[in-house]
Amino acid sequence: MPGHADEAQVLAQQVSLKSNLTLGNHLVFDAYNRMKIQKHMTRFATSALLSLGMSSASLAEIVGNVDVDWLGNDIVVEAVADPKVKGVTCHLAYFERGIIDRLQKGNWFEDPSNSSIACRQTGPIEIGDISRDDKGETVFSERRSVIFKTLQVKRIYDEANNTLIYISHARDVQNGSAKMSMSTVPLYIPGK
User: Of the candidates 98, 91, 112, 94, which has an alpha carbon nearest to the alpha carbon of residue 172?
Assistant: First the structure.
């Protein structure tokens, strides 16, 4: 799996740097390091299962992981290739809570709905059999809680303006969320 060896190397460097700090409470660093290793192993296992064909949605590859605090909270950046439109890649960023944050706030099984998306042409565009209605089509979906909440990327084809619209949003059984992000990919060819 591309990127996992690099992730492990970056993780080892982070663990080394953070464990070299001397703040007197080595248990916090030990728990932090174990949590980071467990998070990366979980991502690797999920990625391995998905690559065996257990999901019909587009696969995401983690391309970035930004530590935002000492509680293990991260901003995760994933690359998602549109499975029906060759040549378009979306980069999705979302917040992932660490175990210490989950312990402090008591909400174990859910991550925030916030996300950001940017989609670009990354090669020659070839449009496959895509939905052309105004509801769009799910390109990618990932759980944000144990049961109810998912983070989704939907594609809408704006035929009048020859543009693909990608929207990332949270979908919840009971409580809809107004938190969303949008990106567009124009389909025009300069000079034609």
Answer: 112
